[in-house]
């Protein structure tokens, strides 16, 4: 039994919302929708010419692609520097219940729950994977392959389909379900003796899933598990309908897959995006479409592209969509423990832990133990047990300023010596030649932050030409009180999300824009993350 350990779990997270954090299993597929009877294309992109592009190709880089600029970017993001929130990391419980004292420079966001951060990470892994661009040298987005399909199609979950990725599927019931596994002993450390589940794993405890990045840490792994069980629950729901009694397992699978994808996409449009960029901008983009994101981009002159899939702009993947890094809390309550027992509390990670420990006091992936499961009541608003995430601002929790790995391999650890997540983000701006936030704001015709508002960047000579990622964080902080993204960040994220959904002819937004959810939910005709988790059966009652 592992309960006599510390009453808290010191958690590991390496590369939250970072599309290049881990070199893992890819799940490309022949038609972009990973349905049945697809040939396996292991470790290859959907098509060889799926790469990244630029949203603003006519704007110059914020800084020249020099070692000096890269060094300055690294310094800006270093531990103890401008971006470090300098949290007190002595007590994970106090970090949660007393944030004003333990995280005075890292305020909570009352409009978003803690789980929104990790839902956002799951979305990132559904549309982008760049495992090859170097951190310490110049990169060309046109020559950087995206190993994911740029569509919210859950290829990270379905892989190549039952034939192309049979290791992901469980056919034992006669239906085409996703594999999940019970955690041995979890009923002894779970409220009301509930059996808890985990991703399927091989003998080395390596998770078997369509995108190995989704096993980087416990929270994300458990959300991926919830999506697997959501699919299985939809299968059962459809099969229970007498109208489907004569349909084959393949027919039920296809119907279930579409329902899973459409309800997931509905959550993106009706919950995640309004929280992140504001309902007004969402409505505008739905009516008018993108202004700057060119879905059919051919600015590189590659008129012979075989793929018609959209290309993701580097301004989105390297800068704007990494806003979630500022939302990370120093610690979390992972679960409530057994009935009458103590909850499991968690710092994000602890690099002092033995990487060979079968159940270390951190949340790194590659481990299975009875207590390594999530009670979602902390992460989403089921009742009054939920906790908020952090505001979108120019500060990152101190725990991500020193990514784990110095004591041995860990999923998502940097192999190039740069352990600050902020430094890694900023150095990639130099490598990819990303324009400044000010230049993009002027291009968009929105208010531009002044040098005085960015005075902390004077020592780095970046107050007039600011890396886009940091600019977007400060824009959210100064213009939206950190509650959501500002005009530059919101438009980039919103245009890409809505653009991808409209470009995918199989999405509900393209195929049936007036569709409304059909699965059971708290509010008829709507569907929220809490509805998904409830329907998936991953929210056992606490009392």
Summary, kept brief:
This protein is mainly alpha-helical. The protein has a single domain, classed as Myeloperoxidase, subunit C, CATH 1.10.640.10. It is built from 16 helices and ten strands.
Q: Roughly how many Å is the radius of gyration?
A: 22 Å
CATH class: Mainly Alpha
Q: Could you say which overall geometry the principal axes of the C-alpha atoms support?
A: globular
Q: What is the terminal separation in angstroms?
A: 23 Å
Structural account:
This protein has one domain (52-536): Myeloperoxidase, subunit C (Orthogonal Bundle). Helix content is 31%, strand content 6%. The protein has helices at 67-76, 92-97, 99-102, 115-127, 155-158, 161-164, 218-239, 249-277, 279-288, 314-319, 421-432, 437-444, 468-480, 487-503, 508-511, 529-536; strands at residues 52-53, 108-113, 169-170, 177-178, 181-182, 197-198, 312-313, 331-335, 344-347, 388-390. A two-stranded parallel sheet has the order 1-7. A two-stranded antiparallel sheet has the order 2-10. A two-stranded antiparallel sheet has the order 3-4. The longest helix has 29 residues, at 249-277.
